[in-house]
């Protein structure tokens, strides 16, 4: 930082061999676990009701995917997850911003926020079903409620983390409250908001599925309950794996969005492009 | 102290004839905690004339930054007042620009958009502001870096961006709080050169805070020595060096003599 030459923003040289090595180890670990699973079932002669063979689970997964049995359930659960995630996140960022903008309101509401966070939110699932019936609405509400808190908390933390000198700068420049919020506070909170989104995304999956446990006839959670009733443990495992894959995929989507936003913020705008913009006006 | 009084008397006698940019009268600032109270500043009196370059020196903890914050209107005085021209400072004024110790840039914005910020907040026409911003960046040798992000620049370059941002509003009064304190010696000398060049035309009034006596003497027309606890102006030194100043003047006898005088006064007023 002491030299006056610009540091070019090139990524570090790709260290391909150790990366491939680690990847290989991960795959080996997976294969070992699958083999141990298989061995356990095979040698201990476990009933498929207790623990099905991994091959049987894979077959069920493939077959039900192939003949389309999974898709309507998957579609319902995805809707619940995504609507809950979106609703909870928006509400979390919105209320978090409000808190940070009105410090007095924050002090008044603080004990209630702590209380509501301590409360096990999934325990409310039966109540939501009671209020909103058996459709997707109660599941969306549970997913939203559980996604709300990480965003709320991170938004408040992000908005409060802005340093005092930056606030002084905006005061010197005569910025009003709204300008401070949109130009300084909100952009500085973006990394915090993304950290919250990552957690909220995973929690939304939990919320939607638990909501379905309580009362639903469609959705992957409902399918797990149904497989329990039918004593089809293999199907249950297949749905677990499906839910895990959904979770991983959605989590990765948030990570990609975060990377795209952060990369955009670090991008060097070519001088020619800036000058062209100036000539147009 | 006598020099300060003489200074004031002259101003009073001349009345409005002398255009006074800043007039600080019996300024005091008290900080209170539940158990103690502390006068960070007490009975501070001085004036700065339009176009004058003033350096405030003192060891750390003598109230320099507190004083500058009062001048900037970021804090309210416990006693006394700060007059800017004909008006008492009650809050941040658009004709006052402040350069902080750290650059305080918005890391997600390009250098150009950081410099444009004051115009944007004042809702000035965008294109015209961007053109002016680019001009200031050109003056400060940063034109080629207009599209970079602050994190991609060196410390000295970041502080130059902060300076360009302050200059965009063309402030009549420039307040600087140890702006080069975090820079290495070579970059610092470079910045002194830039500042001398900028300050010497345009009739800008500058109040510059530093704990570096050499820097104060090199840049300023007058050096005010602040003594600690409570912070007050202990002594005023006129700098007899002609303008335009150059970095070579640091090696002249009268420069070194003055630095020694200020240093000895500083030791004397130490408690």
Automatic annotation (TrEMBL), chain A:
Domain of life: Bacteria
Record GO cellular component, one term: plasma membrane
PROSITE patterns: ABC_TM1 (PS50928)
One Pfam family here: BPD_transp_1
Keywords in alphabetical order: Cell membrane, Membrane, Transmembrane, Transmembrane helix, Transport
Record localization: Cell membrane
Ranges that cross the membrane: 20-39, 46-62, 82-102, 123-149, 192-214, 235-257
Domain ABC transmembrane type-1 per the UniProt entry, residue ranges: 74-254
Biological process, per Gene Ontology: transmembrane transport
Bilayer topology term: Multi-pass membrane protein
Keyword Transport in annotation: yes
Family: Belongs to the binding-protein-dependent transport system permease family.
Name used for this protein in its record: ABC transporter permease
């Amino acid at each position: 930082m002491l030299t006056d030459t610009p540091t070019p923003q090139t990524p570090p040289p790709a260290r391909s061999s150790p990366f491939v090595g680690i990847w290989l180890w991960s795959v080996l670990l997976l294969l070992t676990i699958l083999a141990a699973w298989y061995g356990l079932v095979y040698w201990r002669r476990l009933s498929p009701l207790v623990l099905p063979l991994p091959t049987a689970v894979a077959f069920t997964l493939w077959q039900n995917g192939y003949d389309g049995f999974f898709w309507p359930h998957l579609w319902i659960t995805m809707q619940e997850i995504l609507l809950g995630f979106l609703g909870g996140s928006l509400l979390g960022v919105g209320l978090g911003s409000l808190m940070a903008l009105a410090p007095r309101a924050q002090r008044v509401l603080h004990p209630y926020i702590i209380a509501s966070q301590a409360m096990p939110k999934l325990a409310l699932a039966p109540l939501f079903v009671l209020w909103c019936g058996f459709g997707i609405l109660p599941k969306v509400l549970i997913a939203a409620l559980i996604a709300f808190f990480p965003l709320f908390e991170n938004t408040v933390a992000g908005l409060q983390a802005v340093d005092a000198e930056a606030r002084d700068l905006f005061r010197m420049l005569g910025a009003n409250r709204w300008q401070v919020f949109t130009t300084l506070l909100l952009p500085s909170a973006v990394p915090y908001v993304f950290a919250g989104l990552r957690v909220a995304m995973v929690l939304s999956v939990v919320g939607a599925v638990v909501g379905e446990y309580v009362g639903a006839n469609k959705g992957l959670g409902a399918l797990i309950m149904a497989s329990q009733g039918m004593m089809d443990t293999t199907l249950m495992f297949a749905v677990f794996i499906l839910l895990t894959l959904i979770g991983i995929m959605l989590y990765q989507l948030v990570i990609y969005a975060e990377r795209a936003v952060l990369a955009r913020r670090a991008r060097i705008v070519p001088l020619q492009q800036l000058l062209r913009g100036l000539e147009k006006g | 102290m006598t020099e300060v009084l003489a200074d004031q008397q002259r101003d009073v006698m001349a009345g409005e004839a002398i255009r006074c940019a800043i007039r600080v009268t019996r300024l005091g600032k008290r900080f209170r905690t539940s158990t103690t109270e502390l006068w960070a500043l007490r009975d501070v009196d001085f004036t700065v004339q339009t176009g004058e370059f003033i350096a405030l020196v003192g060891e750390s903890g003598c109230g320099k930054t507190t004083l500058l914050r009062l001048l900037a209107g970021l804090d309210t005085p416990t006693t006394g007042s700060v007059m800017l021209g004909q008006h008492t400072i009650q809050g941040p004024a658009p004709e006052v620009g402040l350069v902080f110790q750290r650059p305080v840039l918005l890391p997600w914005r390009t250098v150009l958009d950081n410099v444009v910020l004051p115009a944007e907040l004042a809702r000035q026409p965008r294109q015209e502001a961007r053109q002016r911003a680019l001009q200031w960046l050109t003056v400060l040798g940063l034109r080629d870096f207009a599209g970079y992000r602050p994190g991609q620049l060196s410390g000295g370059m970041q502080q130059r961006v902060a300076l360009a941002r302050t200059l965009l509003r063309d402030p009549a009064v420039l307040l600087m709080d140890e702006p080069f304190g975090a820079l290495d010696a070579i970059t610092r000398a470079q910045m002194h050169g830039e500042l001398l060049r900028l300050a010497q035309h345009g009739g800008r009034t500058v109040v510059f805070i530093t704990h570096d006596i050499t820097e104060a003497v090199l840049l300023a027309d007058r050096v005010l020595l602040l003594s600690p606890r409570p912070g007050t102006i202990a002594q005023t030194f006129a700098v007899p060096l002609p303008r335009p100043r150059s970095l070579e003047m640091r090696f002249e006898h009268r420069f070194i003599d003055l630095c020694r005088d200020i240093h000895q006064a500083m030791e004397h007023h130490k408690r």
